[in-house]
Structures are given as structure tokens and as C-alpha cells.
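Team,

Forwarding the record for the chain on the shared tracking sheet. I've put the sequence and predicted structure together so nobody has to dig through attachments.
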Amino acid sequence: MSEKHDTSVVVMVIMICLGLSFTAVVLRFVSRGLILKKVNADDWLIVLSWILSFGVSFSIYLGTTYGLGHDTLSKENQVLERKTQFVYTLLYHPALMTTKTSILLFYLSISQNFRVVQWGNWATLIVVNIGGLVMTFLVAFQCNPLSATFLADMPGTTRCIETYALIYASAPLNVITDLLILILPMPVLTSLRLPKKQKIILIAVFAGGGLTSIVSIIRIYFFERALAKEHIHSGITKDTHVNSWNGALSFMWSSVEINAGIICASVPMIKPLIAKLFPGCIGVSGSSGSASFGDTIDSTLHSTEFITFEPPKSAIALTFRESLKPFSLVTVLFFLWGFAYGFVNTINQRFEDLLNISVSRSLGLHSAYFSGYFAAPLLLSGSLLKIYGFRVTFIVGLCINGAGCLIFWPSAVLKSYAGFCVSMVVLGLGLATIELAANPFIVLCGPLKYCESRLCISQAFQAVGALIGPLVASQVLPELLEGETSLGGVQWVYLGIAFFVFLLAIAFYYSKIPEMKDTDFPTGPERHGFTSLWKGEYAVGFAWSVVAQFLYTGAQEIFSRFSGTYLGQGTSAVYSSSTTSHGLFVAGRFVAGFAMLALRPRYILLAALTGCTVTTAVALITQSMSTGTVMIQLIWFLESSIFPIVLATAIRGRGKLTKDGAKYQISSTIGAMLFPPLYYAVLKKSNPRYAMSVPLSLFSIVATYPIYLCTSSKERKRLDKLDCTGDVPEERERPIALQDIKPGRRQYLEMT
């Protein structure tokens, strides 16, 4: 029996919102046209947006007259209601697109002195318009033939894109662009020299745009409830139209979202009118009104002086005490990276179970993740770090990571393997960008004597995050799934993570992160063979380090994903290792980090790799399961410090080439993408014990790197240097004895 709902509530809400947005647009034109006598392109775009919003709202109203909001409809009303839904979905994306374009055009006019903000505006503008046009095209041609869009009973030959799939696909795009529009003007607004009250009002007005993000999330929530009611999640029917009460509420919130955007875009433009009518409300008075606050926002921003902040101290000039605060801040990032890594791998396991995908396809997800690690430093973050420094690279990496979390939203709900792969690539791009900035920052931040120790301890907290992530995910996910065959509930977890990451990016913008420029090095490294990482007498050592990192990350990922197979726990490609193994990994990094305060890092690296080679060999030849288990656990403990020591020794003392060295070190982790599939191929041909020959070979080759460091006099001198100049210690010249000077000159020197 269908439930009865009063759809007049839906009609009343959309009419109120439409009326408020109309009022805001009228007041905007009064302010801009009559007071300022200046109407720009962004103003006319808002008019177009309101016209489209009227079409959306009116189509929802017509839908309610034909049965939208009720569970059962007649055949005739089904066709009419489908037509109104088609109009709504067709106009929804253009309405949002024109609203956001209007806002971004205004941002471009006020951020001319902020180059990075300008680039962000242009990038967001391109994403908004391309995304809006693509989604509009997909909605317009969702069925073949087009007439099938409105049919109640679709023929078997009909091919349609599910409407709910399009809505889910657009959800991350809308949330991401909403957040970008909220964040982009803040650097401009917070740098204005204005009285405190005026600045707070100005920021609050622009921050009101965050309302649209909240409304967008509410809309998706009701849409999900509607889908659950119509059983579309289970794929029982081809009927992709939502007629239920929750569907009506979802459409209502869509109208609210568009009109809220129009209102938020228009409110800042009304300030000249408010300043003229009620000057005391915004901190201006009488004749000084136009001079102090300005008759409009853009004139204020163009005429107001900006605050200039004193640049932070160079990273390489920090003392141990001064480096503690930035070191702690970046260590938090390491923890979050590890947490995301462990959490994502747990979700991979759930995804594999729900879709019953093979180990090979699961390894494909794993490869997608590490492909981002390979591509990001070479194509994006390497140049970003070199040109703009650590802080900008941190912020960009965090934003990409947050975008990857949001992309997971439709992938999980629609159970799309391809979409999941895309989200993994984006997550890899973001985390690789963060790590590319974090690793050289830790190496350079503070006395160079302890750089390997700092990096190992900092990455130990990353291992702590990787340990906690799966534990948290295993507790959260079952409660969200509740036995259903969907990952839909997980999207809210990812949404929360995304918001947290974006907030962290904002925090990094306002934090004083020490930077390191090429000019900060006291002397140029080119005098000592450091003109290039790949040429000169020190090129061999760096190339060796890249190969070592490439092979080691492959061996590490083999144990991360298949150690449970060796122990007889079945073939699994996703974190088959135990909590004990991860605990030993954490302990190994802390032990090595503190040990390097007393011992040279290259000796600890040699001991760790020798131990890994020996224990892997024992695991290969032993017939005892208990002995093999002990060896596997020891490998986890011993291998933990290899990655940070290899990276730190590779870039230490490289001078202005330090950041470039870190770029190639992070890209070399592509070994983690290539070697697990190789191990799995060997595993299928033999057995887990003989498959250990793959990591044994890798560890054996990697062990040659610390041997080279210990035997090469040039590398020893480079590593023992206690500053960051890139200079290699030279033989000191013998002091000139006084008797070696000519008699006349000697007599002059003795007198003076």
C-alpha cells in the first residue's frame, strides 16, 4: 500500500527559494546598474542562471501534479512525469554551470595580484564548464532511440544510461567545485588591510557559499533513499526514474541548491546598496563610506592595501630546536598518508569480496594506485616543488587526495571497477605529491647530521597510520554495509575524509612552512661534480640508489600482499599480513631511527638488507612452517628502515639538485606496481615457498647499494658532510709557514 505525502510542501519550498533568488538578482542589478552604473558579464550570467533555475523549479512543480512523490502512478501520468524529470535533469547542470561561472569570473577580477589564485580560478572554470557540458550532453542523449526516454515499458532493444548513474557521477564534481569556489577567494580576503569588523563581514559573506555544498550532500542523501525504495541498487529493473517521496525531496533540494548558489553569488554585489542605505551595518559612515569600505567588493579589493608576511626562515638554516615544529607538522602528514594507504587497501578487500573479482584484477587496482606514484613526480609535483616550494606542493597534494576520495563516491555506489581504478590513480597522484614534498623537507629541515634519523622516525608514524587504518576500516565498514551487497555507505566515510583533507590544505596555506630555494645554498654544487644527477663522478651512486629503491619497493609490496599466502592463509592480494607484522614494521623504523643517532646510516642499511636477504633465503629453503613464520616476521622488522635510508642517502648533500633527486626516488616506487604481479605469476607456476626466490633476488641486488656506499671514498665524503651546500669535503691546504714567505713580505707581516 503506497504512503500518502503532501507534495505541496515541495512546491512551497521551491517557490520560496525561487522568489528569494529572484529578489537577490533584482537587488544585485539595482546595486550594480543604478548605483555603480556598471554591469558585467558575471551579472548577466546570473540572470541566465535564474532563468534556468525557474525551468528546473517549474518542471518539479509539474512533476508533482503528475504524481511525483507518490509510489504508484497511472500509465498516462508515468509518461508525463518522466518528461518533467527529463526537463529537470536536462536543466540542472547548465543552471549550476552558469552560476559557478559567474562567481569565478568575479573572482578573476579581484585576484589579479594573486597569480596562484588566478590559475586556480581558470582551472576551476575549465572543470566547471567542461563537466557541465558533458553531463548535459549525456542527459540529453541518455537513450537510444531518444523517444525511449519517456517510455514506461522499455523494449528489450532500448539502450539507456541510468539517470541515477549520471547523478552519482556528477556528485563529486559538484562537491569539489563547490569547495574550490569556497576556498579560492580566502587568500585574497584574509590578506586585506581592513578593520577587523569589516574583514569578518567580508569573509562571512563569501563563506556563505559553503551552504551549497551542504545542500548538495543533502540532495544526494535523499536520492539514495529514493533508490533504496525503488530497488535500483540491486539492478532488478531498468526503470531509472524515481517517483517516490524521497525522490521528490531530492528534486526539491536540487532546486534549493541552484537558488542558494544564485543568492550566495548575488549577496556580495548588494553591498553598495546596503552601504548606501544602512552604512552603520557594515562599518562605514557618512562621507567616508566609499573610501573606507568601498561602494562595491571589487573596488575595495582593488584599492585596499594587502598585508605582506615576512617569509619564514630557510629550512636548511634551522637549528634542532627550530626544526621541531615544522618537523611535527609534516610528520602528521606522514601519519595521514599511512592511514589512507591502510584504509584504501582494506576497502580494496571489501570491493574484491563484493564484486568477486579475481586476484589479477585486484592487483590491477593496486597497480592503478602506484601508477599515480610514478606519474605525479615526473609530470606534476616535481616541477611544482622546484618552482613554488614545499607549501604549495603540500596544498596541491592534499587537494588531489581529497578529490580522489570524492571520486570514490560514485565508484562504490555503482560498483564500477573502472571507476574504482580511476579513484585509486587520483589517490596515488595526491599521496605521491604529498610524499614528494615531505621527504626532502624532513631531510633538509634541521641539522643535516640527523637527516636519515629524522626521516626514518617521521616515516615510522606513517607506519603507525598504516597499522591503524585497516583496524579503523574493519570496525567502520561492517556497520555501514549491514550485510548489503553495496559499498554505498562507505561514501560518507570518504566524504568525511575529503572534507578533513581540504581543511588540512587550508591550514597549510596559513602555516609558516620553512622553504628552501636554490639560492639558499651557500655555494654552488657545480664545482664538485653535481651539475647533473645523471652525469659526473657522483652519477653512479645516484643511479644505484634509484635502482635500489625500485627493487626494494617491489620486494616490500610482495610481503605486504602475499605474506599470508606463504603462511597458508590462502591466496589474497590485499593485505594478507597480520597486525603483528605491521607492529614489527613500526618498531623496526623507530629502532633504526634512534640507532642512527649513534651509528652511520649506511651501516644500518647494510645490516638491514643483509638480514632481509638471509631471512628470505631461510624462508625459501626451510621445511618448517614455524621457522618460516619467524623469518617472515623478522623480514617485516628488518625491511622497515630501508626505504627512508635509501631515499635520504640518495639526496643528502646534493645541493640544489636535492628536490630533483627526491622526484626520481618517489617515481622509482613503480617497482611496487610491477613486482607483485611477477610474484603472483611465479606463485601460480610453483608454490609459495619457491616463489620467495623473487624477493630474495630483489633483496640481494639492493644490498649492493650500501656496499657501494661503504666502499666508495667519494660517497663516504658526501654522506659525512654536515651541511647542505652540496660541496664534497676536499683535502685542506697546508697552512703557509711564515718562513716560506719572502723576506721582505715576511718582515711586513711581522710588523703588522
